[in-house]
Design goal:
This protein is an alpha+beta fold. It has helices at about 1-10, 25-55, 65-80, 80-85, 85-110, 225, 230-240, 250-285, 305-310, 315-325, 375-385, and strands at about 10-20, 130-135, 140-145, 145-150, 155-160, 170-175, 180-185, 200-205, 210, 220, 290-295, 330-335, 360-365, 370. The protein has eleven helices and 14 strands. The protein is globular, with a radius of gyration of 25 Å.
C-alpha cells in the first residue's frame, strides 16, 4: 500500500506561485482560516473525548472523517458564522485531520520510538498557527490570470512560469513572513534528456554534503547557516530579551525581532534549496542512472553534529535529486545505508569494526585496497544498486548501454 501511494504521488507535481491580493481579499482569507481552524480544533476535541470514553468504558467507538463530516453538516446548519464560509476548505481540514490521526495511530501500532512518532493532532492557536486552505476542483477556478476561490475571494497570481496542465487542486497558505502563496497540483510532465551512458554513486556526509564517484560532481558544504550565524544569534537575543510571559501576546519589539529572525531563516532555506536544485540538475543532466544512499539524517539531530548536519541540508538536497530525476526520466536508485562505510567497493569484504567519524581513509583488510572513505562508500552504492562501477568515471562512450554488475 505504501509503494502504491508513493507511485500515485509521483504522477503529480506541485507548482507554487506568489499571491498579490487586496486588503478585502486578505480579510476574507483570514476569516476563512478562522473557520477552518475552529473546525480543526473541534475535531481535536471530539477525538480526545472519544478516546477518554473508550478508555473509561472499554468501548471501541471511532472518530473518522465520515463521522466528522456529519458533525460538520450539523454544525453548519446551526451556526450562521460557520455557514458563511465555503464548505470545501472545511471538508479538506477534516481530511487532513483524519490523515494526521491515522498516521499517529499507525506509529503507535508499529511501536516506533517516541522521537520518531508523528504524534496526535493538537490545537491550532490563533497566534501561532499559519493559515493553510485546501480547495478541490469545485472550490476554485482560474480566469484571466486571476485565482477565484469559493466565497468570492479573488487574488492575483504572480505567474513566474506557465502551468503545464489543468490543476486538480490548490493550496493557499501563508509563510512565517506573512507572504501568501498558492500551490497547484498538476499531472507530472516528463522532460527526457539525451542518454549519456554514465552512472554515478552518491554518498551523503556532513563535511561534504555529497561525495560522488566523480570528483567533478561532488557537492562541498555550502555553510549558508554558518555564514548567517552572527545575524541569527543577534535576532535570537533580541527575542529572548522581549519574550512575553506565557499566555500573553508579544510586544511590538518582540514581533519585529521575530519577523527579522524568520526573514533570515527564510533566506538561508532558499539558499540551500537553490544550491541543491542546481547540483541535482547537473547530476541528472550528466548521468543516466544515479545510485543514492537512502540516508535519514533525522538521527543526527541529537548528536554533536546536529548543527553541521542541519546546515548541510541533506534531506532537501536528496529530495531535489529524486524530484529532478523524475522530471527528466532518469533512474534514481535508493540504496540502504547499512554498512556502506564498512564494505570494500573493490572486493566486497566487510570491516570487523565501524570506522570512526574522524577516519577519512578506508583500508580493506582482505585485498589491501586504500581509498578515501566517502569515495569508497559512493562506489559501494553503485555495486549495491546492481551497476558496474567501471562506468562511473566515464569509461563507456556516451550512448553506450549500461552494464549491469554480475
Amino acid at each position: 500500500m505504501a509503494q502504491a501511494g508513493a507511485d500515485e504521488r509521483a504522477r503529480y507535481a506541485r507548482y507554487t506561485y506568489r499571491l498579490r491580493m487586496s486588503s478585502t481579499a486578505r480579510a476574507s482569507l483570514a476569516a476563512e482560516w478562522g473557520r477552518c481552524r475552529w473546525v480543526w480544533n473541534e475535531c481535536v476535541a471530539k477525538s480526545r473525548a472519544v478516546h477518554l470514553h473508550n478508555r473509561a468504558s472499554g468501548g471501541k467507538a471511532t472518530c473518522g472523517p465520515a463521522r466528522l463530516d456529519g458533525m460538520l453538516t450539523e454544525a453548519r446548519s446551526r451556526t450562521p458564522w460557520l455557514r458563511e464560509g465555503s464548505s470545501v476548505p472545511q471538508q479538506q481540514v477534516i481530511r487532513d485531520f483524519g490523515r494526521s490521526r491515522a498516521k499517529a495511530h499507525k506509529d503507535m501500532v508499529e511501536r516506533l520510538p517516541v522521537a520518531r512518532r508523528a504524534g496526535m493532532p493538537t490545537w491550532k492557536t490563533r497566534r501561532e498557527a499559519l493559515a493553510t486552505l485546501n480547495y478541490t476542483r469545485r472550490g476554485f477556478r482560474l480566469k484571466d490570470g486571476l485565482l477565484h476561490l469559493a466565497g468570492g475571494i479573488v487574488m492575483n497570481v504572480v505567474w513566474s512560469r506557465e502551468l503545464p496542465d489543468e490543476p486538480s487542486s490548490v493550496r493557499v497558505y501563508q509563510d512565517s513572513l506573512g507572504h501568501w502563496y498558492c500551490s497547484f497540483v498538476v499531472p507530472a510532465q516528463v522532460q527526457p534528456l539525451p542518454k549519456t551512458g554514465r552512472v554515478l554513486g552518491v554518498d551523503w556526509g556532513v563535511k561534504e554534503t555529497a561525495t560522488t564517484t566523480s570528483d567533478a560532481h561532488d557537492l562541498p558544504h555550502p555553510s549558508h547557516g554558518g555564514k548567517a550565524k552572527e545575524k541569527l544569534t543577534r535576532y535570537d537575543r533580541m527575542m529572548a530579551r522581549r519574550r512575553p510571559k506565557k499566555g500573553t501576546a508579544g510586544s511590538r519589539g518582540y514581533r519585529t525581532a521575530q519577523k527579522l529572525r524568520a526573514k533570515a531563516h527564510k533566506k538561508v532555506a532558499r539558499q540551500r534549496a537553490d544550491t541543491g536544485r542546481k547540483w541535482a540538475k547537473k547530476v541528472v543532466r550528466d548521468h543516466d542512472v544515479v545510485a543514492v544512499e537512502d540516508f535519514r539524517p533525522k538521527f543526527l539531530a541529537r548528536s554533536t553534529m546536529a548543527r553541521k548536519a542541519a546546515d548541510a541540508a541533506i534531506g532537501a538536497t536528496k529530495a531535489a535529486l529524486i524530484e529532478m530525476g523524475r522530471k527528466h526520466g532518469r533512474d534514481i536508485r535508493l540504496v540502504h545505508p547499512a554498512y556502506t562505510t564498512m564494505d570494500c567497493a573493490q572486493c566486497g569484504a566487510r570491516a570487523k569494526h565501524a570506522l570512526p567519524l574522524g577516519e577519512r581513509t578506508h583500508t580493506c583488510t582482505a585485498c589491501g585496497t586504500t581509498a578515501p572513505r566517502d569515495k569508497n562508500s559512493a562506489r559501494v552504492m553503485l555495486t549495491r544498486a546492481g551497476l558496474n562501477p567501471a562506468g562511473a568515471e566515464g569509461g563507456r562512450p556516451p550512448g553506450a548501454p549500461l552494464q549491469e554488475a554480475a
